[in-house]
Amino acid sequence: KSCWLVDPGIKTITVYAATNHSKTYDMEDAEVIDSTLNLRLPLQKIFFTKKAMNQAVIKPKTEPTLDERL
User: 26 vs 7, 8, 19, 21, 59, CA distance in Å?
Assistant: First the structure.
C-alpha cells in the first residue's frame, strides 16, 4: 500500500510507501513515481495551470448579437 499527500498550494506530492519510505516530488520533477502501485504520472497532468486549462476547454459557439446580424 501507499499514500499520496498532495499539496496544491506549493505544488508538491509526497508518496509514502508501506516500507516507511517517502519521496517528495515538485514541479522540477517530470513525473510522480509510485513503485508500490507501479504507477508513473506526469506532474503537468496533476498541477495544470489555468492557462493550460483554458486552452484545453472547447468554448461553445455563441449566437451573433443583433448588431452583428444587421
Answer: 10, 10, 22, 17, 31
